[in-house]
Amino acid sequence: MGRTRNCRKRMTKNKQYRKGHDTKRRARDIDQVQDDIKKVEETGSDMKFELDEDLPGMGQFYCLQCARHFVDEQTLRQHEQTKVHKRRLKDVAQEQYSQREADLAAGKTIEVLPPAHPRPGMEI
């Protein structure tokens, strides 16, 4: 049979390990990507990255919608034909949420009440 290992239990209770592990390879959220796209449209030029040895392809081949770096131009073009990229295009094309929409979804309403003590000559 063999013995059972308890290493999984040990790491799940460690808060620092769990937090670092969950956020290690986190991708950019859709609203962040939408902000990047707006910025590119306003400036009229593509996003440029400095040469970085840590990024694939020295950081020069970047898919703006997916927020991913690629090794070379051919890999980037192949990525643009995949289902993952096309699905991300649909997600990015949706309207960006605003704080007002988030408040309404949470059940917070914005009530405009008439003043308790109206001044003379003020319309209600």
Number of strands: 2
Span between N and C termini?
Answer: 81 Å
Q: Major sheet: size, sense and barrel closure?
A: 2 strands, antiparallel
Query: What gyration radius follows from the Cα positions, in whole Å?
Result: 24 Å
- Tally of helical segments: 6
Uncertain regions: pLDDT < 50 for 5+ in a row?
Answer: none
Kindly report the average pLDDT value.
82
- Which structural class matches the secondary elements? mainly alpha
Percent of residues in helices comes to 40-55%
Shape: flat
Assembly classification: single chain
Instruction: Write out the strand line-up for the largest beta sheet, numbering strands in chain order.
Output: 1-2
Features of this protein?
43% helix, mainly alpha, two-stranded antiparallel ribbon, 124 residues
Write structural notes for this entry:
The chain is 43% helix and 5% strand. It has 124 residues and is mostly helical. Strands 1-2 form a two-stranded antiparallel ribbon. Strand 1 and strand 2 (68-70) form a beta hairpin. It is flat. The chain starts with 6 loop residues before the first helix and ends in a 19-residue tail after the last helix. The relative contact order is 0.08. The mean pLDDT is 82.
Short synopsis of the structure:
The chain is mainly α and 124 residues long. It is built from six helices and two strands, in the order αααββααα.
Q: How is the secondary structure organized here?
A:
Elements: H1 7-12, H2 15-22, H3 30-43, E1 61-63, E2 68-70, H4 73-79, H5 83-93, H6 99-105
